[in-house]
Amino acid sequence: MITLSNIHKTYRQGGNEIRALDGINLHIATGEFVAIMGPSGSGKSSLLNILGALDRPDKGIYHLQQDEISAMDDDSASDVRNRRIGFVFQSFHLLPRLSVLENVLLPQRYSTLPDPQAEQRAHALLERVGLTSRLHHKPAELSGGQLQRAAIVRALLNQPALLLADEPTGNLDSKSAADVLALLTELNASGQTLVMVTHDTDIAKQAQRTIHLRDGKIVEDHR
Ligand code: ADP
Ligand code: MG
Fold this sequence. Notes:
Number of strands: 10
Strand order of the largest sheet: 6-7-8-3-9-10
Strand content: 25-35%
Largest sheet: 6 strands, mixed
Shape: globular
Order of helices and strands: EEEHEEHEHHHEHEHEE
Bound molecules: adenosine-5'-diphosphate, magnesium ion
Structural class: alpha/beta
């Protein structure tokens, strides 16, 4: 599903060049659950941003399904992002003024392909993650675990081919973290391709495959 070939990303800061990604080669098959690990600054978020078409490499080729994302203009890349990729962040990124249901339906509001089934799907997914009684609550009224489950539902709304999660349990207590991880594992078991950044070895153990980054390079890749 994903092929990265010789991906480079360099940031310039002051007079310095920072090689955030330094020649990444990677293939991820449909249905895989991959954990990305590595010390702070090793390039994990940079890699996720490229996979999510949020950013583009300076050099190298990124194929997602049949498309070469790295060759797309910004409009096409954002189309891919909206239709085919779901994002989950450490800090949830829910809008405080909107209810849980409204937050979950946001991707539809921006979609160029209105989907009459989206609302029904939102209800079904919110039920699946145990949030049916919280549909009309605002984010401030939810626990961290509930917020992350709502954010996962939002990420899934457009039925993305690829789900990306950057430290999805990083702001959660251990019980909520376990719940969120169980949900992600269950989604993967039903076929969802999933790439997750984590610092936590125990959390990474849930994935079938763990990739370690250091200084923008892949230094380990095991299944
Ligand atoms: P990680 O997620 O593993 O902590 P990042 O991908 O965020 O690593 O960062 C990799 C390197 O690139 C770090 O040295 C970081 O400081 C640098 N970096 C990331 N984003 C930027 C940016 N927008 N501008 C300058 N340097 C950046
Ligand atoms: Mg990071």
